[in-house]
Each structure stands twice: as structure tokens, then as C-alpha cells.
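Review form for a predicted model. The reviewer records the input and the model, then writes brief findings.
Reviewer: anonymous (R2)
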Amino acid sequence: MLQAPMTDGSAQASSMSADAAAAQSNGSPTELMEVREVDGGDEDKDLRELLMPDVRSLPLVPPSAVESNFVAYFAPDFMKPGHDQYVYRHPNGLCVVGLARTHVAFRDEGGVTGVDFNVGKSDRSAIKVTGKRKKNAQHFESNTILCKVCTKSDSYVVR
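Model under review:
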């Protein structure tokens, strides 16, 4: 603590630090540094909260690759109730199509027994897609048959 002389000759303890008193008397950069420390404390606290989140607020299980990399769409079929599908779309344009849990193929006794990709003029299981640009990939229309899903008693066309 800095002892400041009083007019009556006695010394009284001041609540200012030596650096703050020196900065106040001559306007040195020390004053600016102390102000930054006060404001910086709030900034540091905000940065710590952003960089190190509260552990209690984190999920117990990290998101899967599908959850973090794909946008999920649910496609209910209004023309044929129960023939619902989902589509996972990646930012690069790749789409993954599947049967929703509500599809009638899963309700049939015995469940799904097989999937036949040999539909129409081409066998879709023989298609090999390679490279970053997905060479040899087939482009589909909304009514293109992707495959046939077979159950014990029936088969369903997936478009």
C-alpha cells in the first residue's frame, strides 16, 4: 500500500495500489492496463464459457455421424398409407433413402425377408459408384423404382 503524506504531517494508508496511484498522478499506461484487467475479466469469463462448456449440460452420448452430417426428412405416402420413407440428405447432394419404422413391411408377420435390386432393365446392386464426384451414379426421378422389399406374404415397391 502507498502511504500518502497528509497536510498535517501524518501518514494515512490509502486503498489504492502503488501502480494505480502512479498512473493517476501521471496518466501512464498502467491505468489503461488496470481498466483492461477489469473489463478483461468479463471477457475471459465469457470466453471460458464458450470454450469450456458446463459438463452437466453436455449430452451423455455424442451425436452419431448421421445426426451430425445429414439432414433427415420424413416422407409420408398419402396415396398409399403406411408406405412411409425417410431421406437423409448430405450437403454434397448424396441422399440415403430408407423405409420408415411405420412402413407396412415391418408390420407383416416375419418382417422383411429380402430386398431385390434387380428391377426393370437394370440391376441396381451391380452399380459401382466411385470418386469424389460419384461417377457412375444413377440419377433418379420421383417415380423411379429403387428396389422391391419382400416379406413372407407380400412384396413392396420402393420409389
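Findings: Strands lie at 3-5, 11-13, 71-75, 85-89, 95-99, 112-116, 118-119, 122-123, 147-151, 155-158.
Further findings: DSSP finds four helices and ten strands in the chain.
Recommendation: see findings above.
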